[in-house]
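dude i think i finally got it to work??
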Amino acid sequence: MKVLVTGREGQVVTSLIERAASHPAIELIALGRPDLDLSDTSTIAAAISVVKPDVIVSAAAYTAVDQAEDEPALAHAINADGAGAVARAAAELGIPVVQISTDYVFAGDGTEPYVETDKTGPQGVYGQSKLDGEIAVATANPRHIILRTAWVYSPFGKNFTKTMLRLAADRPTLSVVSDQWGNPTSALDIADGVLHIVRHLHDNPDFADYGIYHLAGTGNTNWSGFARAIFAASQKRGGPSAEVKDILTADYPTKAKRPLNSRLSTQKLADVFGWKAPDWQQSTDAVVERLLAN
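look at this
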């Protein structure tokens, strides 16, 4: 099975490349700029047609949440127009597309974990661009799996876990937001889940349950709780650690508004695909171990 992944360097793409190496039945091809540029939709169909994949994982995205407030046109071009063009190219080839989306499509004012049918309400440009992308993908290709995830971290790229360990090396105390809640999600777990899904789609050509799913780490916490778990995993291995001081979102203003509740229910994914991410603490421990080893 040939799987085309858009992008070459993101956390999810890098994780997919690593995890696919242990699946000999999967040939994974990562395609990014300049060959495939989501900001230039004229490049997309031709680049994809050359590869002739069996399924496309649309993982490339504009992910600079705060910067998107200053670059709404670019964020929309990549996350909405580009994603839609990838889905159309997949439809023209008669193949499914797996689109990676985000918890930021929700307003974050709910009190329970969000399910896939809950009302959306992005609070910023990034979230709106990703929601527009979901709509574009669903419109372009009926054979779509849209995977909303949250709080992504990994041994790769820039992310919260790496930032906390870097800051703790120089500071005894760190102030971390405590009133935003979500599911820390390892990109390695996202990769495992995506590969499970694409195999299922390939092995079940009559699969009919296309649509939106949530794929996130099992269990939830707030950012300060996540930081404490990172430092606990680091400290037991002799790595950097810091005391965590709880602060409110109001104490740490950002250009883009963050949802206070990003918790996602992943029950639908478990029911349909029979896959569930590990507990977030387990995955955090594994990623910290790798970061310290490197």
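The chain has a mean pLDDT of 97.
im so relieved honestly
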